[in-house]
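Field log, afternoon session.

UNIT: design team B
ACTIVITY: writing a sequence onto a fixed backbone
BACKBONE:
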């Protein structure tokens, strides 16, 4: 792990390693300080460490939460747009290569767009299952693991809400990116020594 951290820091990432979800939550909380505006990218990893619920419960930050129940699609899009010019954007990643590329596929694209430019900082929660050797391995993981599980998750959510499932690989994974940090320490990685998300 030490070699990976060295590579990531040379790439320009601010990199932290933790053993558990609880440590990841505690560290994340310390990085998101009073008065910050915070945007969200779709991430099971962020939910799994307890950070999504923590952010929703806080009253000392401005959270642009597009997942709030009962809001209109117009308000959802509005919050996603506002999230892209925040102090901190919180998300996960589909894969991280050992030479420092964050690799993702998105449906609407707000998550990958925010990683590239917009928010002052981006906080990325990375479970050990997301770390792969090469760019080829990363894209394979995106299409064979992350995208498939996201289709299943989102269609199940539709069924639970009494709607017809409509998600396919074509509309879940239609915007692809692989990026490296281009502004030192703007992207903050928390590497967690547990499997998280898809």
């Amino acid at each position: 792990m030490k070699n990976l951290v060295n590579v990531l820091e040379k790439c320009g990432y601010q990199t932290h390693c933790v053993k558990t979800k609880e440590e990841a939550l505690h560290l994340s909380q310390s990085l998101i300080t009073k008065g910050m505006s915070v945007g969200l990218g779709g991430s099971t990893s962020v939910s799994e460490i307890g950070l999504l619920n923590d952010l929703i419960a806080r009253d000392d930050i401005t959270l642009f939460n597009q997942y709030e129940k009962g809001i209109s699609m117009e308000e959802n899009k509005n919050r996603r747009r506002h999230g892209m010019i925040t102090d901190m954007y919180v998300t996960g990643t589909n894969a991280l290569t050992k030479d420092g590329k964050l690799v993702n596929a998105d449906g609407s694209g707000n998550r990958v767009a925010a990683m590239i430019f917009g928010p002052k900082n981006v906080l990325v929660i990375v479970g050990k299952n997301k770390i792969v050797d090469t760019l080829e391995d990363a894209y394979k993981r995106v299409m064979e693991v992350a995208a498939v599980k996201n289709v299943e998750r989102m269609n199940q959510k539709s069924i639970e809400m009494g709607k017809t499932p409509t998600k396919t690989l074509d509309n879940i994974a239609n915007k692809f990116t692989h990026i490296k940090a281009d502004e030192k320490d703007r992207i903050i990685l928390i590497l967690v020594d547990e499997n998280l998300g898809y």
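LOG NOTE: The longest helix spans residues 135-160.
NEXT ACTIVITY: expression trials, pending approval
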